Protein backbone atom coordinates (compact mmCIF):
# COMPACT_ATOMS: atom_id res chain seq x y z
CA UNK A 1 0.00 0.00 0.00
CA UNK A 2 1.47 3.30 -1.02
CA UNK A 3 2.24 5.91 1.56
CA UNK A 4 0.20 9.09 1.49
CA UNK A 5 2.57 11.18 3.57
CA UNK A 6 3.88 12.94 0.48
CA UNK A 7 0.46 14.33 -0.35
CA UNK A 8 -0.16 17.99 0.38
CA UNK A 9 -3.86 17.51 0.96
CA UNK A 10 -6.06 14.90 2.56
CA UNK A 11 -7.28 12.20 0.20
CA UNK A 12 -10.70 10.71 0.76
CA UNK A 13 -12.00 7.29 -0.18
CA UNK A 14 -15.39 5.78 0.59
CA UNK A 15 -14.01 2.73 2.37
CA UNK A 16 -10.55 1.58 3.34
CA UNK A 17 -9.61 -1.84 4.68
CA UNK A 18 -6.40 -3.72 5.47
CA UNK A 19 -5.32 -7.28 4.77
CA UNK A 20 -4.74 -7.91 8.49
CA UNK A 21 -8.47 -7.55 9.11
CA UNK A 22 -9.03 -10.95 7.48
CA UNK A 23 -6.94 -12.59 10.20
CA UNK A 24 -9.67 -11.88 12.79
CA UNK A 25 -12.73 -14.09 13.35
CA UNK A 26 -16.06 -12.81 12.01
CA UNK A 27 -14.24 -10.31 9.77
CA UNK A 28 -15.95 -11.73 6.67
CA UNK A 29 -19.26 -12.57 8.35
CA UNK A 30 -21.62 -9.64 7.84
CA UNK A 31 -24.53 -12.08 7.71
CA UNK A 32 -23.53 -13.48 11.10
CA UNK A 33 -23.35 -9.98 12.59
CA UNK A 34 -26.77 -9.12 11.14
CA UNK A 35 -28.16 -12.35 12.61
CA UNK A 36 -26.67 -11.45 15.99
CA UNK A 37 -28.25 -7.99 16.00
CA UNK A 38 -31.52 -9.37 14.60
CA UNK A 39 -31.61 -12.08 17.26
CA UNK A 40 -31.00 -9.48 19.95
CA UNK A 41 -33.89 -7.33 18.71
CA UNK A 42 -36.18 -10.35 18.37
CA UNK A 43 -35.45 -11.47 21.93
CA UNK A 44 -35.82 -8.11 23.66
CA UNK A 45 -38.92 -7.06 21.72
CA UNK A 46 -40.80 -10.35 21.29
CA UNK A 47 -39.36 -13.62 22.60
CA UNK A 48 -38.12 -12.34 25.97
CA UNK A 49 -41.34 -10.60 27.07
CA UNK A 50 -43.40 -13.58 25.88
CA UNK A 51 -41.15 -15.98 27.82
CA UNK A 52 -41.49 -13.91 31.01
CA UNK A 53 -45.23 -13.25 30.68
CA UNK A 54 -46.36 -15.82 33.26
CA UNK A 55 -43.11 -16.01 35.21
CA UNK A 56 -41.84 -14.19 38.27
CA UNK A 57 -38.88 -11.84 37.71
CA UNK A 58 -35.54 -13.55 38.13
CA UNK A 59 -33.32 -12.46 41.01
CA UNK A 60 -29.95 -11.79 39.44
CA UNK A 61 -28.14 -9.67 42.01
CA UNK A 62 -24.95 -11.74 42.14
CA UNK A 63 -24.94 -12.20 38.37
CA UNK A 64 -25.28 -8.45 37.82
CA UNK A 65 -22.58 -7.68 40.38
CA UNK A 66 -20.20 -10.00 38.55
CA UNK A 67 -21.26 -8.56 35.19
CA UNK A 68 -20.67 -4.95 36.26
CA UNK A 69 -17.29 -5.84 37.74
CA UNK A 70 -16.37 -7.54 34.46
CA UNK A 71 -17.37 -4.46 32.46
CA UNK A 72 -15.27 -2.20 34.69
CA UNK A 73 -12.26 -4.49 34.22
CA UNK A 74 -12.83 -4.79 30.46
CA UNK A 75 -13.12 -1.02 30.02
CA UNK A 76 -9.99 -0.45 32.10
CA UNK A 77 -8.13 -3.01 29.98
CA UNK A 78 -9.29 -1.26 26.82
CA UNK A 79 -7.96 2.06 28.15
CA UNK A 80 -4.59 0.36 28.55
CA UNK A 81 -4.76 -1.14 25.04
CA UNK A 82 -5.72 2.11 23.33
CA UNK A 83 -2.96 3.92 25.17
CA UNK A 84 -0.41 1.94 23.14
CA UNK A 85 -1.35 3.16 19.63
CA UNK A 86 -2.24 6.63 20.93
CA UNK A 87 1.21 7.06 22.47
CA UNK A 88 2.89 5.65 19.37
CA UNK A 89 0.91 7.81 16.93
CA UNK A 90 0.06 10.85 19.05
CA UNK A 91 -3.29 12.41 19.90
CA UNK A 92 -3.42 14.30 16.60
CA UNK A 93 -0.96 12.38 14.40
CA UNK A 94 0.37 14.31 11.41
CA UNK A 95 1.55 11.11 9.78
CA UNK A 96 -0.61 8.21 8.71
CA UNK A 97 -0.38 5.80 11.58
CA UNK A 98 -2.35 3.29 9.50
CA UNK A 99 0.72 3.07 7.24
CA UNK A 100 2.91 1.89 10.13
CA UNK A 101 2.46 -1.91 10.37
CA UNK A 102 3.16 -1.94 14.12
CA UNK A 103 0.69 0.81 14.94
CA UNK A 104 -1.85 -0.61 12.51
CA UNK A 105 -1.68 -4.00 14.22
CA UNK A 106 -2.33 -2.43 17.63
CA UNK A 107 -5.11 -0.28 16.20
CA UNK A 108 -6.94 -3.25 14.66
CA UNK A 109 -6.62 -5.26 17.85
CA UNK A 110 -8.10 -2.39 19.88
CA UNK A 111 -11.12 -1.95 17.62
CA UNK A 112 -11.80 -5.70 17.48
CA UNK A 113 -11.70 -6.04 21.28
CA UNK A 114 -13.92 -2.98 21.54
CA UNK A 115 -16.42 -4.69 19.24
CA UNK A 116 -16.38 -7.86 21.36
CA UNK A 117 -17.01 -5.70 24.42
CA UNK A 118 -20.07 -4.16 22.78
CA UNK A 119 -21.45 -7.64 22.17
CA UNK A 120 -21.15 -8.47 25.88
CA UNK A 121 -23.06 -5.29 26.71
CA UNK A 122 -26.13 -6.72 25.00
CA UNK A 123 -26.58 -8.60 28.28
CA UNK A 124 -27.77 -5.31 29.82
CA UNK A 125 -31.07 -5.64 27.98
CA UNK A 126 -31.33 -9.37 28.61
CA UNK A 127 -31.12 -8.71 32.35
CA UNK A 128 -33.87 -6.10 32.11
CA UNK A 129 -36.14 -8.59 30.33
CA UNK A 130 -35.46 -11.45 32.75
CA UNK A 131 -36.22 -9.12 35.68
CA UNK A 132 -39.28 -7.62 33.97
CA UNK A 133 -37.86 -4.10 33.97
CA UNK A 134 -39.58 -3.37 30.68
CA UNK A 135 -39.66 0.38 31.35
CA UNK A 136 -35.87 0.35 31.03
CA UNK A 137 -36.01 -1.16 27.53
CA UNK A 138 -36.42 2.22 25.84
CA UNK A 139 -35.80 3.17 22.23
CA UNK A 140 -32.55 4.87 23.26
CA UNK A 141 -31.33 1.77 25.06
CA UNK A 142 -32.18 -0.74 22.31
CA UNK A 143 -31.08 1.44 19.40
CA UNK A 144 -27.81 2.27 21.14
CA UNK A 145 -26.83 -1.33 21.74
CA UNK A 146 -27.90 -2.65 18.34
CA UNK A 147 -26.39 0.18 16.30
CA UNK A 148 -23.05 0.16 18.11
CA UNK A 149 -22.53 -3.58 17.57
CA UNK A 150 -23.29 -3.30 13.87
CA UNK A 151 -21.54 0.04 13.35
CA UNK A 152 -18.35 -0.99 15.14
CA UNK A 153 -18.06 -4.11 12.96
CA UNK A 154 -18.43 -1.98 9.82
CA UNK A 155 -15.77 0.42 11.14
CA UNK A 156 -13.41 -2.47 11.87
CA UNK A 157 -13.94 -4.06 8.46
CA UNK A 158 -13.97 -1.04 6.18
CA UNK A 159 -12.97 2.14 7.97
CA UNK A 160 -10.62 1.69 10.92
CA UNK A 161 -8.39 4.69 11.67
CA UNK A 162 -6.72 6.48 14.57
CA UNK A 163 -9.78 8.62 15.31
CA UNK A 164 -11.81 5.47 15.96
CA UNK A 165 -9.27 4.38 18.56
CA UNK A 166 -9.54 7.74 20.33
CA UNK A 167 -13.35 7.49 20.36
CA UNK A 168 -13.10 4.04 21.93
CA UNK A 169 -10.65 5.34 24.54
CA UNK A 170 -12.99 8.12 25.67
CA UNK A 171 -15.94 5.72 25.70
CA UNK A 172 -14.01 3.26 27.86
CA UNK A 173 -13.21 5.99 30.40
CA UNK A 174 -16.91 6.82 30.69
CA UNK A 175 -17.79 3.13 31.00
CA UNK A 176 -15.37 2.59 33.88
CA UNK A 177 -17.18 5.33 35.80
CA UNK A 178 -20.62 4.16 34.73
CA UNK A 179 -20.26 0.46 35.51
CA UNK A 180 -18.49 1.21 38.78
CA UNK A 181 -21.55 3.25 39.75
CA UNK A 182 -23.84 0.34 38.83
CA UNK A 183 -21.67 -2.10 40.77
CA UNK A 184 -21.73 0.04 43.92
CA UNK A 185 -25.46 0.70 43.62
CA UNK A 186 -26.15 -3.04 43.42
CA UNK A 187 -24.29 -3.77 46.65
CA UNK A 188 -27.12 -2.41 48.77
CA UNK A 189 -28.41 0.66 50.63
CA UNK A 190 -25.30 0.89 52.80
CA UNK A 191 -23.30 1.85 49.70
CA UNK A 192 -25.98 3.60 47.70
CA UNK A 193 -25.98 6.57 50.05
CA UNK A 194 -22.59 7.55 48.62
CA UNK A 195 -23.87 7.52 45.05
CA UNK A 196 -25.55 10.90 44.71
CA UNK A 197 -23.81 11.77 41.43
CA UNK A 198 -25.94 9.66 39.09
CA UNK A 199 -26.98 12.53 36.81
CA UNK A 200 -23.34 13.47 36.23
CA UNK A 201 -22.81 10.20 34.37
CA UNK A 202 -25.08 11.48 31.62
CA UNK A 203 -23.13 14.75 31.66
CA UNK A 204 -19.91 12.77 31.13
CA UNK A 205 -21.52 11.06 28.16
CA UNK A 206 -22.59 14.34 26.59
CA UNK A 207 -19.05 15.68 27.01
CA UNK A 208 -17.79 12.46 25.43
CA UNK A 209 -19.82 12.98 22.25
CA UNK A 210 -18.70 16.60 21.86
CA UNK A 211 -15.06 15.67 22.50
CA UNK A 212 -15.09 12.90 19.89
CA UNK A 213 -16.62 15.17 17.24
CA UNK A 214 -14.01 17.88 17.90
CA UNK A 215 -11.20 15.33 17.80
CA UNK A 216 -12.52 13.90 14.53
CA UNK A 217 -12.58 17.33 12.88
CA UNK A 218 -9.13 18.38 14.13
CA UNK A 219 -7.61 15.07 13.07
CA UNK A 220 -8.97 15.55 9.57
CA UNK A 221 -7.45 19.02 9.44
CA UNK A 222 -3.93 18.11 10.58
CA UNK A 223 -3.43 14.60 9.18
CA UNK A 224 -2.44 13.90 5.56
CA UNK A 225 -4.00 10.47 5.21
CA UNK A 226 -6.52 8.54 3.19
CA UNK A 227 -9.55 9.11 5.34
CA UNK A 228 -12.57 6.89 4.85
CA UNK A 229 -15.71 8.91 4.21
CA UNK A 230 -17.74 6.03 5.60
CA UNK A 231 -15.90 6.19 8.91
CA UNK A 232 -16.07 9.97 9.14
CA UNK A 233 -19.81 10.09 8.53
CA UNK A 234 -20.51 7.19 10.88
CA UNK A 235 -18.62 8.64 13.85
CA UNK A 236 -20.01 12.16 13.47
CA UNK A 237 -23.54 10.94 12.75
CA UNK A 238 -23.51 8.61 15.76
CA UNK A 239 -22.14 11.24 18.13
CA UNK A 240 -24.61 13.91 17.00
CA UNK A 241 -27.57 11.52 17.22
CA UNK A 242 -26.59 10.16 20.61
CA UNK A 243 -25.96 13.67 21.91
CA UNK A 244 -29.52 14.65 20.96
CA UNK A 245 -31.03 11.49 22.47
CA UNK A 246 -29.03 11.62 25.69
CA UNK A 247 -29.55 15.35 26.09
CA UNK A 248 -33.29 14.80 25.70
CA UNK A 249 -33.12 12.08 28.36
CA UNK A 250 -31.17 14.39 30.68
CA UNK A 251 -33.74 17.18 30.33
CA UNK A 252 -36.67 14.85 30.99
CA UNK A 253 -35.01 13.09 33.90
CA UNK A 254 -33.47 16.04 35.72
CA UNK A 255 -34.06 19.53 34.31
CA UNK A 256 -37.82 19.27 33.75
CA UNK A 257 -38.44 17.47 37.03
CA UNK A 258 -36.51 20.13 38.90
CA UNK A 259 -38.40 22.89 37.10
CA UNK A 260 -41.73 21.26 37.99
CA UNK A 261 -40.73 21.03 41.61
CA UNK A 262 -40.66 17.25 41.72
CA UNK A 263 -37.87 15.46 43.48
CA UNK A 264 -35.92 12.96 41.43
CA UNK A 265 -35.10 9.67 43.05
CA UNK A 266 -31.62 9.41 44.42
CA UNK A 267 -29.37 6.40 44.45
CA UNK A 268 -30.59 5.65 47.98
CA UNK A 269 -34.16 5.29 46.69
CA UNK A 270 -33.33 3.07 43.72
CA UNK A 271 -31.51 -0.19 43.27
CA UNK A 272 -29.09 -0.74 40.45
CA UNK A 273 -31.80 -2.74 38.73
CA UNK A 274 -33.94 0.35 38.36
CA UNK A 275 -31.24 2.79 37.34
CA UNK A 276 -28.90 0.85 35.08
CA UNK A 277 -30.31 2.20 31.81
CA UNK A 278 -30.53 5.83 32.87
CA UNK A 279 -27.07 6.72 31.70
CA UNK A 280 -26.20 4.21 29.00
CA UNK A 281 -23.80 4.98 26.17
CA UNK A 282 -21.56 3.49 23.28
Automatic annotation (TrEMBL):
GO terms for molecular function: fatty acid elongase activity. It catalyses: a very-long-chain acyl-CoA + malonyl-CoA + H(+) = a very-long-chain 3-oxoacyl-CoA + CO2 + CoA. Coiled coil: none annotated. Its main location: membrane. It comes from the Eukaryota. Residues 258-282 are annotated as: Disordered. It is a multi-pass membrane protein. The chain crosses the membrane at residues 30-52, 64-92, 112-130, 142-158, 164-183, 204-223, 229-250. GO terms for cellular component: membrane. One of its GO terms (biological process) is fatty acid biosynthetic process. Its EC number is 2.3.1.199. It holds the Pfam family ELO. It is found in: Membrane. Keywords: Fatty acid biosynthesis, Fatty acid metabolism, Lipid biosynthesis, Lipid metabolism, Membrane, Transferase, Transmembrane, Transmembrane helix. It is an enzyme of class 2 (transferase). PANTHER family: ELONGATION OF VERY LONG CHAIN FATTY ACIDS PROTEIN 7, FATTY ACID ACYL TRANSFERASE-RELATED. Belongs to the ELO family. This is Elongation of very long chain fatty acids protein. It comes from Loxostege sticticalis. The lineage of its organism: Eukaryota, Metazoa, Ecdysozoa, Arthropoda, Hexapoda.
Amino acid sequence: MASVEDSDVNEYVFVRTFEEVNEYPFSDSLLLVLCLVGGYLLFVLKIGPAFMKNREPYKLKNTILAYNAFQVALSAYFIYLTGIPMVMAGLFPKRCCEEDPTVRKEMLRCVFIYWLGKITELADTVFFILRKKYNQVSFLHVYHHASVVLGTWVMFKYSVNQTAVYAGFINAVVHVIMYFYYFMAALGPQYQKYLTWKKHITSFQLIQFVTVIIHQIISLAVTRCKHSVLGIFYVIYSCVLFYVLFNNFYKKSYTQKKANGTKTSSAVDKTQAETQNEAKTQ
